[in-house]
Amino acid sequence: MSRTHRRHIIITSALLFIGFAIRASFIIGAEFPLNDGGFFLSMIRDLQAAGGALPVYTTYNHSQIPFVYPPLAFYLVDFMARAFSIGELSLLTYLPIVFSCLTLLAFLPLAREILKEDREYYAAVFIYALFLPGFIWMIMGGGLTRALGFAFALLAIASARKLYTAGGIRHAIQCAIACILTVLTHPIFAWFTVLSIGLLFLVERPTRRKTIYSILVVVLVALFTAPWWLTVLRNHGFSPVIEAFSTESFEWDIWGVLFRYTAFGLLGIIVCMRNRDYLLPVWFLLLFLLDPRNAPTVAVVPLSMLISLVFWRAVLPSWQRIRKRGVPSSTEQPLPTDEAEQGLLSTPRFPKFQRVLDRVIIVCAVFIGLSLGLDYWASLGPTYPVRALEERELEMMAWIQEEIPADRTFLVLSADIWWNDKIAEWLPALTGHRSLLTAQGHEWLSADLFTSTWKAHTQVQTWARKGDLAAILQWQSESGERPEYLYHSTTRTNWFDEYRCCEEIEQLLLESPALELVHREGESLLFKIIQ
Fold first, then answer.
1. Over the stretch 88-136, which tens digit does the pLDDT of each residue have?
2. SS (H, E, C) 249-266
3. pLDDT, averaged across the chain
4. In Å, how far are 68, 174, 290 from 72, measured between CA atoms?
């Protein structure tokens, strides 16, 4: 083994260790999945109850949700639970962390394919390992499918890049296997894979032989995923998939997210465009245009490489020029004239403009570094919204499962955002009852129903924060369902501390003649609606 190769292994291993440690730090001491995963727990148990056959519907939330979700991760959990006598909840707690680490491993060959210089490759891996948006959704309970699908997708894209640059049937087979596993794991990351490989095909302009290999990949993917998608089509047709891909982009300001990411990637885009390397800039922008719901996560892949290029090809040369300008005139050395030393954002014919440009580049680099640091610093605090259900919530749900008659309807008052409402997510899975404001899974029924449900959740939680009990008690779902129980638990967090939210509505609930307090676990209250 050469000295260079040994150094490469050491540096890469150190970067991987940093990434693994950061991801594992979120789960230290946890005994329950972070945030979401209740929908998947129900689907795993539905598979088990069906003896491994694909059920027509999932039992989650008694909503007759079509069982069309790609099942590979669910079969994996079922196998591990049986083979190693590990509970499904334990697997949902720890497997997402493992799979998130696999995404970092899968990023290595892709970064190596695109970034040829070692220093650019190392910087991209380091940034990807630290970039919180790239893995925070992967380590939650729902990361069981998200992280695994992302890892397979990155391997598929790396194999496709190798196929279009080096050729060979071996790379085509590798790409096909990775694509098959992606399709059978997560639908959104399957779309991410299609977009990315399609862009590679257009940019690389493969030969006729490589085009034939690409067609072979498509045929193999269609054939080996057929047992799943043919079953889905036979049971439900195309409707659930069309509805799921027609849903709105949640509540986040996608253009605000794009602006922040563009602030990170703009210099990288300029660097690449000046070097006539269009892949990363087009890839980065394409994801926000054609995959907006998933873009804040997957755009980290090209963005990490863009920031790496910015550092080596713009920031470092600018810093060197600023330092040389500060050297006393007696020892001052001439500024470099070679473009490679100057960096790609150099304007030697306009020295005054160059001085301003150098300072702008350094300010942008500081902003990028501070933003990355603030993201991670915030994630370390006890108030960060990625956390497991508290013990009192688990005890409350265990009591509900034992004491409340089956199939009762609940209205959860958490004062939280719907996609971060852990109580509404887990109550149907852990109790077997129906939560009227839980949107998870409704995307497979109807895009309109999914949207109206999470909007209703937002409205009811707004009433809870304002103390409008009358509006809450009058609420009913679009189908006319009314809740039989109110579940109130509204601990809130901000950047500085954890505090009790919505004490006004809590007092109104306790005093209302329309409600009967049937159980209490600390600050979690369960009321029966008697009027």
1. 999 999 999 999 999 999 999 999 999 988 889 999 999 899 888 888 8
2. CCCCCHHHHHHHHHHHHH
3. 85
4. 12, 18, 25
Do β-strands 57-58 and 409-413 pair in parallel, antiparallel, or remain unpaired? unpaired
The torsion region of residue 77 among left (phi > 0), alpha (psi -120 to 50) and beta comes to alpha
Residue 410 has pLDDT above 70, yes or no: yes
Which residue type is seen at 514? A
Percent of the residues in the chain that have a pLDDT greater than 70, as a whole number: 85
CA distance 498 to 382: 8
Structure tokens at 74: 């669910």
On whether the pTM is more than 0.90, the answer is: no
**Residue among 248, 242, 232 nearest 184 (CA):** 232
Query: What is the Cα–Cα distance from 20 to 15, expressed in whole angstroms?
Result: 9
Please report, for residues 170, 193, 200, the alpha-carbon distance to residue 215 in angstroms, rounded to integers and kept in the order given. Answer: 14, 15, 14
- CB half-sphere exposure, 327, CA atoms < 13 A: 12
**Residues facing 435 on adjacent strands:** 410
Query: Which is higher by pLDDT, 313 or 40?
Result: 40
Whether pLDDT at 336 is above 90: no
The dihedral built from the CA positions of residue 329, 332, 334 and 336, taken in this order, carries a sign that is negative
Q: Strand 491-493 relative to strand 485-488: parallel, antiparallel, unpaired?
A: unpaired
Record the tokens describing residue 171, joined without a space: 């790379």
Phi/psi of residue 485, each to 5°? -135, 150
DSSP 187-247: HHHHHHHHHHHHHHHHHH---HHHHHHHHHHHHHHHHHTHHHHHHHHHHHTTHHHHHHTT-
Do 453 and 442 contact (CB within 8 A), yes or no? yes
Q: Collect all residues with Cβ–Cβ distance below 8 Å to 237 and sequence separation of at least 6.
A: none
Q: How far apart are CA 51 and CA 57, in angstroms?
A: 14
* pLDDT score, position 383: 47
What's residue 338's pLDDT?
A: 46
Strands 409-413 vs 485-488: parallel, antiparallel or unpaired: parallel
For every residue of 268-294, DSSP letters joined together read HHHHHHHTT--HHHHHHHHHHHH-TTT
C-alpha 160: how far from chain center? 23
The answer to whether the beta carbons of residues 319 and 360 sit under 8 Å apart is: no
Strand partners, 58: 65
Q: What are phi and psi of 245, to 5 degrees?
A: -85, 0
Calpha distance 470→512 (Å, rounded): 10
| Maximum CA extent, the chain | 90
Q: Quick check: 525 pLDDT over 80?
A: yes
CA 242 to chain centre: 21
Q: Which tokens hold the place of 82?
A: 């049986």
Q: What is the dihedral of CA 280, 284, 286, 287, to 10 degrees?
A: 130
* Block residue for tokens 């972070």: 34
CA atoms 14, 18, 23, 25: torsion sign: positive
DSSP reduced 3-state for 449: helix
